[in-house]
Recover the amino acids of this structure.
């Protein structure tokens, strides 16, 4: 066997670990760079705000100094207020000196001059001249016209003399004199942009970042920017309207604040190496149980000379080998469990049948032990047997396949078990035949009769009627106080089901209720069955009423199913015997159609009501077809007249074929022949049956003497009447009347 799963595990884990470690390192580098960028932006923001504050403070200082001088300096005020006659050269010199003093005391001021509006004269530290002779005359005109505003101007060129060489770049502040009116003139202060740039440079002397100061028009006032600078922060002053831009010099990025040194590299490599070593150690330790399992399987396989030995599995890896061994183990376990369950089911059914048969005694100790083995409830008090029978089972078999029948039976048994459990009557049941489910009920200690069982099976019956396509009839035996009484209780339940034909299907039949009813005698209805057969053969309408009477007597007599079937078989036998007397075409109708349908009804129906309805339908259809066959015969009209004449003259002692021949103008011999063919009975037997039937009615319904009744039915001689009556019924008229 190639024991290479350890290497496979390492090759599975290590690449993933290294990829994840590399990704984490890259993420940490980028995260640090992003953090450095944010810090750089924030630092530039703070720095730009600081520079802007410095510039604003410097320019505010200049502005405040200018305002102070305008408000407090008498020499400046004297320049604007004195008349021309009052001004002396000394005053002008002192005012000019004051301007130089202001420039000296305020380092950022490059130049300052006064403009008097009354005579449009300009005074600077170096000269006094008219506006038109002053080098900054254009700016003065705009300031006097009020187009300059009160803010510091954008960068502009300034020269004091026309013949001055290179102009200087300054920003200017103009203040009116007086401050609120400005009718006397203005004061102009110029600050050289190079001075501002020098001040900013002292603050931002760095090869990493830069600062650029822009005026309101976007012109650069000061800048420490190199080529390719990236602006990170921009701050605009509300006072001057200027903007400070700050960023990183050259091609530097925000990552410049983060240095991935060799120390970090060594740390990362060390951590990755430590993780790889840890994976190897953990994998080796986790592989030990697998190795142990393989060794144990090998040892077992060698002992058993099994195909799972190492030599026979050299082409498999460890887990494939373990999987094969486990599959074999699971298969063996499932097979063993299946055999055990089948054996348990077989033993359970055999023990159930043993209880019902009662061949060998079963002790309470064995019963309790078997109940525990089968997972069934142990006996608490009394037991009772019930048998649940599927009604019209033959019809069920014709409608459903074998598989569907099993499903329906399983549903029925499951519902009975559930309802029994809910009713506090634990049940054990087995199918003892295709249509019968025997149920062993555990009765509660307080139960004195089968009332609880009856209520439970009523619920079963209601559920079956509602959810299944068939009905059930339940036979209940009497309670068994001892185990040896169970066979008797089961026999009583089966016996109760035999009376389903009398009580009807889809009900509960208690064995105790059958004992309370008088059971009928099977063979006392032979005369009635013979009369039904004779009337049916002759096509007389009274056979249906006689058959309804037969079924009513069977139902009142509480006949069991076996006894009722015996009576019906006897009825069919009488009908069969009478039909053999008819012509062949009638016999074929009976044998091919009517008789098979009657036998089929007896197999498919369960109750007397069902048998009566279906017998009546089949025999009525057959009678109609027989009547149709008689109608097409040539002598049918003559036979009907002969039959009517017999029914009218049956009490006439002189009734004979000769008498009828003279009445119908047909020879007696021919009448005898066609009567036999038409009705399947000879003339004398038919007349005798008619007379005896009427005699029975009179014996039952009247109190006339036997002799008078004999005379009324055509037997003037009492002896002849007694002989014929006993031959037909088996008893004398007097005995018949007594019964």
């Amino acid at each position: 066997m190639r024991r290479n799963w350890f290497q496979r595990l390492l090759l599975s884990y290590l690449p993933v670990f290294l990829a994840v470690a590399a990704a984490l390192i890259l993420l940490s580098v980028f995260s640090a760079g992003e953090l450095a960028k944010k810090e750089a932006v924030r630092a530039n923001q703070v720095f730009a705000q600081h520079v802007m504050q410095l510039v604003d403070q410097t320019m505010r200082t200049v502005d405040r100094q200018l305002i102070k001088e305008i408000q407090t300096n008498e020499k400046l005020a004297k320049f604007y207020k004195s008349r021309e006659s009052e001004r002396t050269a000394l005053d002008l010199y002192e005012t000019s000196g004051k301007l130089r003093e202001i420039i000296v005391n305020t380092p950022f001021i490059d130049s300052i001059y006064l403009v008097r509006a009354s005579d449009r004269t300009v005074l600077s530290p170096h000269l006094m001249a008219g506006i038109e002779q002053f080098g900054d005359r254009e700016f003065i005109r705009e300031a006097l016209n009020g187009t300059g505003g009160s803010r510091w101007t954008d960068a502009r060129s300034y020269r004091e003399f026309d013949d001055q060489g290179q102009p200087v770049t300054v920003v200017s502040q103009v203040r009116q004199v007086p401050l609120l009116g400005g009718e006397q003139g203005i004061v102009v202060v110029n600050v050289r942009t190079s001075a501002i740039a020098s001040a900013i440079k002292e603050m931002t002397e760095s090869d990493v970042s830069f600062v650029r100061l822009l005026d309101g028009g976007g012109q650069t006032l000061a800048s420490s920017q190199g080529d390719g600078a990236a602006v990170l922060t921009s701050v605009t002053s509300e006072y001057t309207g200027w903007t400070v831009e700050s960023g990183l010099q050259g091609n530097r990025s925000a990552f410049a604040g983060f240095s991935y040194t060799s120390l970090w590299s060594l740390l990362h490599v060390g951590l990755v190496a430590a993780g790889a070593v840890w994976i190897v150690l953990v994998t080796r330790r986790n592989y030990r149980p697998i190795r142990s399992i393989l060794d144990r399987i090998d040892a077992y396989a060698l002992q058993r000379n099994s195909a799972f030995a190492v030599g026979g599995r050299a082409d498999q890896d460890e887990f494939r080998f373990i999987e094969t061994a486990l599959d074999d183990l699971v298969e063996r376990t499932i097979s063993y469990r299946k055999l055990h369950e089948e054996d348990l089911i077989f033993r359970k059914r055999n023990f159930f049948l043993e209880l019902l048969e009662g061949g060998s005694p079963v002790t309470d100790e064995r019963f309790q032990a078997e109940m525990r083995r089968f997972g069934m409830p142990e006996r608490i008090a009394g037991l009772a047997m019930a048998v649940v029978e599927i009604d019209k089972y033959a019809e069920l078999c014709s409608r459903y396949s074998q598989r569907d029948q099993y499903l329906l039976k399983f549903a029925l048994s499951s519902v009975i078990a559930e309802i029994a459990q809910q009713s506090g009557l634990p049940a054990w049941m087995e199918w003892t035949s295709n249509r019968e489910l025997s149920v062993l009920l555990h009765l509660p200690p307080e139960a004195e009769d089968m009332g609880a069982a009856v209520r439970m099976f009523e619920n079963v019956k209601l559920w079956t009627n509602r959810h299944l396509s068939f009905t059930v009839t339940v036979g209940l035996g009497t309670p068994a106080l001892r185990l040896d009484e169970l066979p008797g209780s089961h026999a009583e339940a089966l016996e109760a089901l035999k009376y389903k034909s009398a009580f009807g299907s889809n009900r509960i039949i208690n064995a105790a209720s059958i004992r309370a009813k008088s059971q009928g005698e099977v063979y006392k209805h032979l005369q009635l069955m013979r009369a039904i057969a004779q009337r049916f053969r002759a096509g007389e309408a009274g056979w249906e009423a006689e058959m309804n009477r037969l079924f009513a007597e069977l139902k009142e007599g509480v006949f069991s199913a076996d006894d009722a079937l015996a009576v019906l078989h006897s009825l069919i036998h009488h009908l069969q015997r009478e039909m053999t007397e008819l012509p062949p075409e009638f016999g074929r109708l009976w044998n091919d159609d009517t008789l098979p349908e009657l036998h089929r009804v007896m197999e498919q129906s369960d109750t007397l009501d069902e048998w009566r309805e279906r017998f009546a339908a089949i025999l009525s259809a057959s009678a109609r077809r027989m009547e149709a066959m008689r109608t097409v015969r040539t002598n049918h009209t003559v036979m009907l007249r002969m039959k009517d004449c017999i029914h009218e003259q049956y009490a006439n002692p002189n009734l004979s074929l000769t008498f009828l021949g003279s009445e119908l103008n047909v020879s007696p011999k021919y009448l005898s022949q066609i009567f036999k063919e038409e009705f399947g009975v000879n003339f004398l037997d038919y007349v005798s049956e008619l007379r005896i039937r009427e005699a029975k009615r009179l014996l039952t319904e009247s109190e006339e003497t036997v002799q008078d009744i004999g005379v009324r039915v055509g037997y003037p001689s009492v002896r002849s009447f007694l002989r014929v009556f006993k031959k037909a019924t088996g008893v004398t008229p007097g005995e018949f009347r007594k019964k």
Summary: DSSP finds 26 helices and 15 strands in the chain.
